[in-house]
Design goal:
This protein is α/β, with parallel strands linked by helices. It has a domain of 148 residues: Alpha-Beta Complex (Aspartate Aminotransferase, domain 1). It is 38% helix and 13% strand. The protein contains 16 helices and twelve strands. It has a seven-stranded mixed sheet with strand order 1-7-6-5-4-2-3, sandwiched between helices. A five-stranded mixed sheet has the order 8-9-12-11-10. Helix 4 packs parallel to helix 11 and helix 14 crosses helix 16. The longest helix has 23 residues. The protein starts with a helix and ends with a helix.
């Protein structure tokens, strides 16, 4: 086969190097965000399907670190931004990679945003957004109930390296949020759609309205509620994810994503000023391919996670335990979540049981894993097995005692990411037996 034939099989031809391009379209998805269906699963199905190099139903994995051009002049036009990935011109995989870019399009469609960029971890996504939006000496208003790593970033790292300060607030208190934002100084309002680990639900429409009135960019971490909530459709400007959790579903991948306006994501990829471009939290294309194969069944997985979490929450409450779950009618933000949630996806796959003391929490988790086979003592979430952790001494351990108390994290709070392995009744029987054993344990220690 001659070189001419081989080159004609490329997505762009020799003549494409001569034609003009529009750098502004670099990260725009194929469909306008406003034209995509509002149901996340339907939106995902509307994205252009990428075929493999030889017509395979699965896309090819582009593992090249660097890419060739047909004409030497093309290289300069690519670096100037005249030609870009929107027309299949790639320079270097730290900048853009075709396989990773396809995953980014899927994430943008799912969240209903113009663009997205996938990163090497959730913390990479969060850190890059903060550094891009908040300059040295800037101010952030954030929920006081956050993942421990995010809390540490805002309370310790950013003040030290860039004098960025954060005021932590109760995001369910809209007046407190409003008073904390200083017009002209506050750059970001940051919260989790469903908070880790206390499962408080953020009023995204009202928080977005307050932020926009003060000229503040509203950033929502939607790690706990993919498919369930669509923050951008409710007013948030930027949505971040730890893809490692529900979206991956296999507890075998570390990854993150930034979803938002094309103007913002493109600015984060600027050669001179872009936080993503210059810090380089690059996703491996092999990881991007893996994730692209899992996203089509995310809706099915989320529905089962959420269904089982609701059933278990109701039954645990009927047994007299202190259960926190947004799907329960006595949850403070139950009606709010119902008003925001996408239809038929449920109320989230996480529930919390407050065992009051760390000793009782540890006893129950130990029995559930090592005797009952109900789940695993491990951090993270979204796995097919139930994952359990005592939040105060694990994922929220970066917070001091006062911060935990303000956030509502008690010493005996068990966070359970409800899995879907086995049958529902099989898993419930295992959980119920462990609770019976706990009662016997408590009685023996009282006597």
């Amino acid at each position: 086969m001659s070189d001419t034939v081989v080159l004609s099989n490329n997505k762009r031809s020799h003549s494409d190097d001569i034609e003009g391009g529009d750098a502004k379209k670099t990260l725009l998805s194929n469909n306008s965000a406003s034209m995509l269906p509002t149901d996340p699963a339907a939106a995902l199905a509307s994205v252009r399907h990428e075929f493999g190099e030889h017509g395979g139903v699965n896309m090819s994995i582009e593992t090249s670190a660097t890419f060739t051009v047909m004409e030497p002049e093309t290289m300069g036009r690519m670096f100037s931004g005249e030609l870009g990935p929107d027309r299949d011109f790639f320079i270097y995989s730290r900048h853009f990679n075709p396989t990773v870019l396809n995953l980014s399009r899927l994430l943008a469609a799912m969240e209903g945003t113009e663009a997205a960029y996938c990163t090497a971890s959730g913390m990479a996504a969060i850190s890059a957004v903060m550094l891009q939006l908040v300059g040295c000496g800037g101010h952030v208003v954030a929920s006081r109930t956050l993942y421990g790593g995010t809390h540490a970033l805002l309370s310790h790292f950013l003040p030290r390296v860039s004098n960025i300060t954060t005021t932590f607030v109760d995001v369910t208190d809209l007046e407190m949020v409003k008073e904390a934002m200083v017009e002209g100084k506050t750059k970001v309002l940051y919260f989790e759609t469903i908070s880790n680990p206390t499962l408080a639900v953020a009023n995204i429409p009202e928080l977005s309205k307050l932020g926009h009135q003060k000229g503040v960019t509203v950033v929502a971490d939607n790690t706990f509620a993919p498919m369930v909530i669509s923050p951008a459709r409710l007013g948030a400007d930027v949505v971040v994810h730890s893809i490692s959790k529900f979206i991956s579903g296999g507890a075998d991948i570390i990854a993150g994503a930034v979803c938002g306006p094309a103007s913002l994501v493109n600015s984060m990829m600027d050669l001179h000023q872009g936080a993503l471009m210059l810090l380089g939290p690059t996703m491996n294309p092999k990881i991007a391919f893996e994730l692209s194969e899992r996203i089509p069944h995310l809706a099915l997985r989320m529905k089962e996670h959420c269904h089982r979490a609701l059933v278990f929450a109701k039954r645990l409450k009927n047994l007299g335990l202190k259960v926190i779950y947004p799907g329960l009618e006595d949850h403070p933000q139950h009606e709010l979540l119902m008003s925001m949630a996408n239809k038929d996806y449920g109320y989230g796959g996480i529930l919390c049981v407050d065992m009051e003391t760390e000793e009782r929490a540890n006893w129950l988790m130990n029995h559930l894993q090592n005797y009952g086979q109900f789940g695993l003592m491990a951090v993270s979430l979204g796995y097919y097995e139930t994952l359990m952790s005592c939040s105060g001494s694990s994922t929220s351990s970066e917070m001091n005692s006062e911060e935990k108390e303000l956030a509502g994290i008690s010493p005996g709070l068990i966070r359970m990411s409800i899995g879907y392995i086995g049958t529902l009744e099989q898993k419930w029987t295992q959980l119920e037996k462990a609770l019976t054993k706990l009662k016997e344990h408590d009685l023996s220690h009282k006597n």
